[in-house]
Design a protein that fits this description.
It is built from two helices and three strands; from the N terminus they run βαβαβ. It is an alpha/beta fold.
Length: about 110
């Protein structure tokens, strides 16, 4: 009778540990009526075509909605991306933005 030796394999978890701590999500708005919505864009894929369509549809659905265009906030992907992103909280607060639509294209 042949002897069976146990075979052992080392297993490595392929996922890295979290590098940042997660935060709770912001409280959701009940409606976009009478709200100011800011558009953000990375200037990569057809935002100049898509944002006017989104704006029109939002205005058809929600009375009193005001749109603040992506040109107010800068390119969220360009050479000055880090500065644009770092400045966003203050810029959103200064413009009294209640919600954001962020367009990211590839």
């Amino acid at each position: 009778m042949s002897s069976h030796s146990e075979i052992h394999y080392e297993v490595v978890w392929p996922k890295s540990p979290l590098a940042i701590q997660t935060r709770p999500l912001a409280e959701r708005l009940d409606t976009l009526e009478d709200k100011r919505v800011g558009f953000l864009w990375d200037f990569l894929f057809r935002g100049h075509e898509l944002f006017p369509v989104i704006e029109k549809e939002l205005q058809n659905r929600f009375t009193g909605i005001e749109i603040v265009g992506y040109d107010e906030f800068g390119n969220t992907h360009g050479g000055d991306e880090a500065e644009v992103i770092a400045a966003l909280p203050n810029r959103l607060r200064d413009r009294r933005i209640d919600a954001v639509v962020s367009g990211v294209g590839c």
